[in-house]
Task: inverse folding
């Protein structure tokens, strides 16, 4: 059993927020079928727009706010116990809805599986 | 973007607790490189001992309690923002430390990757 604690993770500034990449944890490389990082959006803050070829599942562990898909125009409230799945190349932003508490989530991400349907593919044509 | 909300998930009784398997969510099959389920340990409750060939990462999203490895004898406090990685075939139990609030975590699990070292392997010989 190995525990990973956001509170004691080494954090760096990325995407306009604080990020704790799991590469810092010994023994995870080659063992997890995904990459992972803690993400902390400060009170009143938001992430910069993010877009990457990996699919991403973000699991909210504390705080509250909104997750926005710039690609689809969808914007939904989130709090602990809600997970958001982003398609490959889906542009997205996280907004902290509190001026007092951080919004914290664990992002896990992986390259699309061979043959996996991409639910948002029709919306993902490059924008000119 | 697809959201998965524990509060509206269909839950069933398994392992002595309430479980919301992600197979209920359309579009996840063949898209996630892992299985997933919400787990809710009721106030004052605990899970039955669990043991399976999959490796498992459990991400605590609310409540507090303890996670116990029966295999190693390790027992550690957990709360939101802590994730626990269990090795393949590691026997484990979750304890809710509150008489008022549920302990909620998201379990994700996968078969060990080819060539992946199993950190706890020396402790995992069958007990006679």
Result:
């Amino acid at each position: 059993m190995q525990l990973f604690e956001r509170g004691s993770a080494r954090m760096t500034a990325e995407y306009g927020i604080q990020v704790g990449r799991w590469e810092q944890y010994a023994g995870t490389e080659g063992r997890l079928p995904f990459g992972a990082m803690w993400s902390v959006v400060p009170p009143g803050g938001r992430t910069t727009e993010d877009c990457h070829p990996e699919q991403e599942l973000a699991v909210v562990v504390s705080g509250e706010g909104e997750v926005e898909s710039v690609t689809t125009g969808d914007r939904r409230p989130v709090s602990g116990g809600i997970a958001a799945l982003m398609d490959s190349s889906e542009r997205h932003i996280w907004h902290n809805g509190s001026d007092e508490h951080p919004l914290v989530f664990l992002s896990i991400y992986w390259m699309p599986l061979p043959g996996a349907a991409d639910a948002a593919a029709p919306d993902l044509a490059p924008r000119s």
